[in-house]
Amino acid sequence: MSDKIEGVKKLFTSKSARVETNRGESYYNNLFERCQARLDELRAQEPVNRLDFSELLSEHGTDRRDFMKWVSATTAMLMLPPMFAPLVAEAAELMNRAPVIWLELQDCAGNSEALLRSDGPKIDEIVLDIISLEFHETLMAPSGHQAEKQLDGAMGHFNGKYLLFVEGSIPVGAGKEWCTIGASGENFLDHLTRVAEGAAAVVAVGSCATYGGIPAAAPNPTGAVGVMDVIKGKPVINIPACPANPANMVGVVLHYVLTGQVPELDSLLRPKFAFGYRIHDNCERRAHFDAGEYVESWGDEGAKNNFCLYKMGCKGPMTFNNCSIVRYNEGVNWPIGVGRGCIGCSEPDFWDKYAYERPMADAKLKAPTGGVEKSVDEFGLGLLTAAGIGIGIHAAASAIAGKKEDGGEA
Amino acid sequence: MTKQLIDQIEGEASIRFDMKENMVDFATIAFPHFRGMEAILEGKPALDALVVTPRVCGICGHAHLMASVRAMESAYADANEPVQLTAKADTIREVTLVLEMIQNHFKWIYLVIMPELAKLRPEKIALTPLKGAYAASLASKALASFAGQWPHSSYMLPGGVSCDPTHLERIKAQSLVDELISFFEKECAGTALDDFLAFDSCHDFNALESDIGEIERALTAAGMHKKGFAYDRFMVLGEHRFTNPAKVMQTRLLQADEKHVKTHSAYSPSEKTFAKNACYKDEFYECGPLSRAMASNVELIKSMHRRFKDSAYSRVMARIFETARLLDHARDMLGSLALNEDSLIPPKPITGISGCGVGVVEAPRGPLIHRVEIEEGIIKSYEIVTPTQWNIGSSVKENPTPAQLAMMGNVTMEEALFIFRTFDVCSVCTTH
Ligand code: SF4
Ligand code: SF4
């Protein structure tokens, strides 16, 4: 019993932002100088496309104030102190120096759809326009052979410098030879390996590219895997979720332009600025969780009063993502806002383990605080389905959490 | 034989052309990608389909969600446990579906049709893809007010919807739709929505000084009113407030029933394809906005059809006109939404349900069918038939599919590639 209680405590009290948001003055001063040097260097470079940020801003009728609002929000999102805002603004303007190649593999095109309608329609759209995705199967004008020529051109010209964004999983099992891409009929794996060769870093966008995603759900008919399973010896950045949040895609590019480096990553190679937060800790229904007020069945009184969705299968307590903060579709809403639980779409294998409506108590899972996969009973989470006990444990656990925090990673 | 690769759709397709004296003699179509969604669903708890099937497609995932939940509700009925829906739940589902169609259409107009038309008529078309993206973002924001996120929402459940919107959310959605309507009036149509909807002849388009006017004139200049004919028979299977199921032979409306829909392997002799052709009693039918307008007797489109039949012109203009109709419809539905009803009337837990169910909805491109067999809440089998399988199958020369037929005879390869796009292709749905 006491083990169980320990497990629950650990799971429900690991600190939300596992990222150091304040690293002290000298750290930031140092970083500031490095970023400044990087931006000077970029400014001296030829733009990779002709788009001019300030021109586009005025074309879109965006005034400086809107832009500065966006800048401070983005600076905060990247977990930088306000003194970096002018640099972030500069980085946005130098975005046209960052060559980006975008590949669509085994996917639903949902991430590029999400990106197309990115946050802050004006500014992020412009950012998207500017990074202009040197090569994006869905958005780009030429097609077929011409597109391949353009891809080869971009790869040659920006060798070693481009960021490669990948959407979709890679079939390496039975599906390896089934699915081909481009006029030459290359299979996905060969195609990805070839294009990744000259990339500065590979960014896996969405849960398919990160973990294999939905195509990898049992029985994984095509043998789908994620980018990090096949690309070795290259920095890989994962931006999981289904779809990935456009704010996080823009964040990664901006970070790269600003610092020339990949952002700090967690054990699953996710940028901490976006995935250092636990849904549960920033959830608007958290007060109801703490009060032991749960939706007990869809459409009941609890549902009408926006109670906690834990018993309806909400995976917020073990899911790391910032959608409880940035939300979706320009901050309009998010799944928990419409009364369905979080499905844990930024965590590995959620299709098979958790999916819809199964309380975590019925799933095998790995605590965000690390360790091997355990059944929920071993964690003692099952206890939480009895609301009364849940509150007791939770209350006790919160008190302890206030004092000490040591939640590391797996 | 020439192979042409089609991208900038959702996924990829390839067409092989047989040319005769520079004109298309025959074409086969292949969809080379595959994920195995139906196999993934087998053996999973039934409600998992509500999170899995929207992921079939990044552009019409909502239609998949609705088809899936309708299939489940139909399985409840099959098990003698009929599910009830309040008018409120029904309206919210319908509003979000319509908004998804609207975003799709805007994207198609600005990111597909205009650039493709520009290839045929370079001097005529100014490209403004961000307009399409902006309009689509307004529609998906309004959608997300009820559905939580877009793409890939899972907020519908057997018996209703999980959201319980207040007046505040309704007003938010209404103002987004109003903003979108003014955007449409100012930036796309160049005239008020109501005036646009009152058009009764194609000549009315011609007078517009706007993107839509430009598109209409370019289509005519490119001769698209004389090309791209398919079978002149149309299929609508989804039951909605904006259209109704019907089989339309030229202009004759007949009854249609999903049970006559079967799929067959596609004909693709020189390339592997994962697509299957969808047929109604073994015959090919065209589906999508033109079909829906014919089935619901939209006067303007019927008059257009009298002049230009099922040409590429009619297909494009019918989708543009549907966008306007759906905007109007979304505004009406939001206005009439009764917030005091229940969002969801809980049915018996699905673990106690065994039965077969079918869910049919009209997705942006046409009828989308989900068929499910459930045994004690576990999926035994799942079948998905998508709109692109109707329009863009690949069959033999003697019995071509609508898209094949539309590309055959008296068109150049460039024209054929344009005609192909008038069907609004979705590869990821087709093969799923
Ligand atoms: S992660 Fe989700 S949105 Fe992205 S490709 Fe996969 S299914 Fe589509
Ligand atoms: S709804 Fe989910 S994330 Fe929110 S408090 Fe409840 S369990 Fe946590």
Description:
The complex is a heterodimer of chains A (410) and B (432). Chain A has 410 residues and is of the alpha/beta class. Chain A contains 19 helices and eleven strands. With 432 residues, chain B is α+β, with helices and mostly antiparallel strands. The interface between A and B is large, with 70 and 74 residues. Bound molecules: iron/sulfur cluster (2 copies). One iron/sulfur cluster binds next to helix 14 of chain A. One iron/sulfur cluster sits at the interface of chains A and B.
Strand content of chain B: 15-25%
State which percent range the strand residues of chain A make up: 5-15%
Separation of termini of chain B? 28 Å
Round the Cα radius of gyration of chain B to an integer and report it.
21 Å
Shape of chain B: globular
Shape of chain A: globular
Poorly predicted parts of chain B: none
How many helical elements of chain B?
Answer: 16
**How many β-strands of chain A, per DSSP?**
11
Overall strand count of chain B: 13
State the strand order across the main sheet of chain B.
1-2-3
Element-level helix/strand string of chain A:
HHHHHEHHEHEEEEHEHEHEHHHHHHEEHH
**Residue windows where pLDDT falls under 50 for at least 5 positions of chain A:** 117-121, 132-142, 365-410
Could you give a short account of the major beta sheet of chain B?
3 strands, antiparallel
Give average pLDDT of chain B, whole number: 94
Question: Structural class per helix/strand content of chain B?
Answer: alpha+beta
Fraction of residues in H or I helices of chain A: 40-55%
Biggest sheet of chain A, in brief? 5 strands, parallel
| Biggest interface found | A-B, 70 and 74 residues
Secondary-structure element pattern of chain B, one letter each: EEEHHHHHEEHHHHEEEEEHHHEEEHHHH
